[in-house]
Amino acid sequence: MKSLYDVPAPAKLNLFLHITGRRPDGYHLLQSVFMLIDWCDTLHFEKRPGGGISREDLTMALPDNDLITRAAHLLQNHTGCTDGVHIAVEKQIPAQAGMGGGSSDAASCLLALNRLWKLKLNLSELEQLGLKLGADVPFFLRGRNAWVEGIGEKITPIDLPAAHFWVIKPPTGLETSQIFAHPDLKRDTNTATISVFAAQTYDFGHNDLQAVAQNLCPGIGQAILLLNDHGLQARMTGSGSAVFALCKDNTKKVTVPDHFLSRFCSNMEVHPLSGWASSES
Predict the structure, then answer these.
(1) CA-based Rg of the chain, rounded to a whole angstrom?
(2) Is the pLDDT of residue 1 over 60?
(3) What pLDDT digit, counting tens, does each position of 51-87 carry?
(4) What's the N-to-C CA distance of the chain in angstroms?
(5) What is the pLDDT of residue 2?
(6) Which residue from 150, 178, 210, 193 is spatially nearest to 20, judged by alpha carbons?
(7) Annotated catalytic residue within 12, 66, 105, 169
(8) Residue 258 appears among annotated catalytic residues
(9) Which residue is catalytic, options 41, 105, 136, 208?
(10) Quick one: CA dihedral 111, 117, 121, 122, positive or negative?
(11) Contacts for 2 with CB less than 8 Å, ≥ 6 apart
């Protein structure tokens, strides 16, 4: 087995995000569809002796104890592995965008090191570790587009038609906690079913966080207007500041200000690392 890996960590879009209620402990109940797209970070792993874990930031500076580093230490401590690793990170997915970049990095880290260190943990074991890092990590570990319910723990794989999307991220990000704590957040959307979603797919639903988020971050509204002005129907993804729109014309160009990030993306049927961990106990 190779002593180094270069692996992708794809982003996701929330095709819709409905808040259907709130539990007594304060956690919000949601429904959403998570869809993988080909806007990816790339993580480079080199096995090292001695147990040390180091990280090199190739494109942008990350916090010292980011999710990649935490995932590596968590896996090492859980298994008692004595091997080490050097991880070089090409970060492309913007932070605070609602695109799951940190969670995806953590999932790809767990999958890669499980192989690199020959630990042979199954997918269920990796998911239990992933939950300690973030609610979205199990989705990326499972590696399929999914219908998501509850507080994010109920994940049902679904198939989605191939499609293309313009994704725009304004220069400012958004903290998830700011939105969910806001008194004006709509928390009573009626529950839906997969069959109702399947009948409409990319035209279904809305993002209950969007109204509050636009007030907190004006760049979201600006990005939506940019896409709407090109005849596209835009909405926010997740709880960050990025917005997206289905694009049926692959040649359509969208011009955005220099301080905005934008990318023309395709969805993915499965995660590039699907199958890297056994689904069997």
Answers:
(1) 19
(2) no
(3) 999 999 999 999 999 999 999 999 999 999 999 999 9
(4) 22
(5) 63
(6) 150
(7) 12
(8) no
(9) 136
(10) positive
(11) 116
Residue with tokens 């990350």: 62
Instruction: Report the SS3 class of residue 262.
Output: strand
Residue 238 and residue 11 in contact, taking contact as beta carbons nearer than 8 Å? no
3-state secondary structure (DSSP) of residue 43: strand
pTM of the model: 0.95
Q: In the predicted model, what is the mean pLDDT of residues 265-269? A: 97
- pLDDT reading at 280 higher than 80: no
In the chain, DSSP assigns E strands to 4-22, 28-48, 53-57, 84-90, 146-150, 154-157, 164-169, 234-236, 243-246, 261-266
23 phi and psi angles, rounded to 5 deg: -80, 160
Phi, psi of 124 (to 5 degrees): -60, -40
Torsion-angle region of 72 (φ positive above 0: left; ψ -120 to 50: alpha; else: beta)? alpha
Contact 109, 68 (CB under 8 A): yes
Compute the average pLDDT of residues 249-255. 84
Known catalytic residue: 47? no
